[in-house]
């Protein structure tokens, strides 16, 4: 019978599962490595099962351990909820919130959302990760980030997925481009020139019209936009992300509508069903409010 189980032990279990090692978990939790090792060993004795397989490269959960980790996270979420309920003023919220977003969101709507959210909840430590949608989905599924902001919609029985907004893709050329005086451009015209495109869905559309010359595959938006501004290639971004883009505001990049096809782009948020804290829900509420304001620009 388990009679000495402690919240700290559950935190150790979840953090080891997230980081893949006892040493990394100890560093993140600001606890000594021997303390975590002793806490896990004690819990394994109390439960009568092996939670992790330890090796030189890290610690992997056993099949039984995976079930315990899942339940431990649920319990920690409930404890967090109880702690947050005790604070009648939202401004007293404390803790850490990790948000992973694709570039189109992190360079447009996210900055203003973060500023506004931080003013309301200064006690919450924010971590921002910029990645591709497929990596963000994995981070959320693994419990390594609290909220994922992705392109498209995603169905997973472990996740809550909600649509945020829809925008359209826009072609972008440099101010010295032969197309700079135009208001629109066709995809058939685009594929005859070097192209910068990071969206797999958009690449599939371009590929239907021919064999585009994809110039670079870099995730570095700054480098890509500099190349577009120099007139070396034609790029694609969403109408939403270009609203506050400095290259567009200075006239170095010219946005053009796509004349022969309307390319809709959806953005969504994802969360683990078992990992929805009050802080994360307040952040999503703030994000949705900022989206409404952003669309009015």
UniProtKB/TrEMBL annotation:
Where does the record place the HTH lysR-type domain? 5-62
Q: Which InterPro entries match?
A: LysR_HTH_N, LysR_subst-bd, WH-like_DNA-bd_sf, WH_DNA-bd_sf
* Listed transmembrane segments: none
GO molecular function (one)? DNA-binding transcription factor activity
Which CDD domains does the protein's record reference? PBP2_LTTR_substrate
Q: Which PROSITE patterns match?
A: HTH_LYSR (PS50931)
Instruction: Cite the PANTHER family for this sequence.
Output: HTH-TYPE TRANSCRIPTIONAL REGULATOR (PTHR30126), HTH-TYPE TRANSCRIPTIONAL REGULATOR GLTR (PTHR30126:SF40)
Query: Which protein family is named in the record?
Result: Belongs to the LysR transcriptional regulatory family.
Question: Could you identify this protein by its name?
Answer: LysR family transcriptional regulator
């Amino acid at each position: 019978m388990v009679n000495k189980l402690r919240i700290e032990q559950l935190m150790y279990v979840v953090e080891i599962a997230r980081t893949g090692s006892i040493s990394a978990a100890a560093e993140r939790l600001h606890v000594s490595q021997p303390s975590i090792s002793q806490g896990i060993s004690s819990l394994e004795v109390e439960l009568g099962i092996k939670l992790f397989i330890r090796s030189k490269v890290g610690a992997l959960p056993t099949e039984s351990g995976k079930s315990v980790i899942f339940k431990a996270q649920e319990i920690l979420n409930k404890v967090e909820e109880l702690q947050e309920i005790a604070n009648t003023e939202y401004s007293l919220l404390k803790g850490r919130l990790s948000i992973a977003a694709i570039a189109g969101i992190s360079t447009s709507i996210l900055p203003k959302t973060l500023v506004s959210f931080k003013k309301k909840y200064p006690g919450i430590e924010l971590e921002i990760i910029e990645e591709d949608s497929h990596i963000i989905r994995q981070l959320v599924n693994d419990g390594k980030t609290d909220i994922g902001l992705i392109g498209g919609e995603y169905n997973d029985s472990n996740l809550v997925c909600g649509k945020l907004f829809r925008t359209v893709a826009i072609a972008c050329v440099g101010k010295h481009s032969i197309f700079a005086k135009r208001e629109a451009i066709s995809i058939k015209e685009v594929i005859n020139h070097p192209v910068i495109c990071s969206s797999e869905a958009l690449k599939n559309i371009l590929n239907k019209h021919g064999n585009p010359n994809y110039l670079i595959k870099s995730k570095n938006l700054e480098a890509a936009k500099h190349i577009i501004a120099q007139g070396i290639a034609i790029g694609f971004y969403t109408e939403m992300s270009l609203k506050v883009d400095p290259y567009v505001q200075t006239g170095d990049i010219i946005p053009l509508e796509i004349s022969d096809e309307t390319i809709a782009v959806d953005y969504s948020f994802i969360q683990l069903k078992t990992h929805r804290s009050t802080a994360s829900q307040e952040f999503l509420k703030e994000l949705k409010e900022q989206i409404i304001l952003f669309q009015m620009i």
